[in-house]
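Quick review question:
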């Protein structure tokens, strides 16, 4: 039976490790998605998903009009933060066990109002 676990956490973990040990310097360009895909024996789409998630956190950034990803937070644009009510941890993929966002208690969902009945025809 084939392994069904996603491969993108493995790519994320590798990129974060390379940044931490200094193999990838701040503001340097990452290898292309094609080369990372062949290195991890996965699709470019999987690599792009991993790198896009690292852009969401301040590990990587992109420059408009250029291809590729760069190491470090983009100081020219505001960093996108996760939604307030979510708690995102990278403990499964991060050697740092970094937590982003604050946990808030979930509010109970409001009951939906029943849809109003519409009259059809010319009835009086």
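Suggested answer, residue by residue:
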């Amino acid at each position: 039976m084939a392994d069904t676990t996603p491969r993108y956490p493995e790519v994320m973990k590798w990129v974060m490790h390379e940044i931490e040990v200094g193999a990838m310097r701040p503001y340097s360009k990452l290898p292309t998605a094609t080369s990372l895909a062949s290195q991890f024996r996965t699709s470019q789409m999987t690599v792009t998903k991993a790198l896009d998630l690292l852009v969401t956190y301040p590990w990587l950034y992109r420059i408009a009009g250029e291809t590729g990803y760069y190491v470090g937070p983009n100081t020219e644009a505001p960093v996108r933060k996760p939604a307030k009510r979510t708690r995102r941890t990278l403990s499964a993929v991060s050697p740092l066990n970094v937590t982003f966002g604050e946990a808030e208690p979930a509010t109970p969902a409001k009951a939906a109002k029943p849809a109003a009945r519409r009259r059809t025809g010319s009835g009086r």
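Why it works: The two ends are 66 Å apart (CA to CA). Residues 89-106 have pLDDT under 50 and may be disordered.
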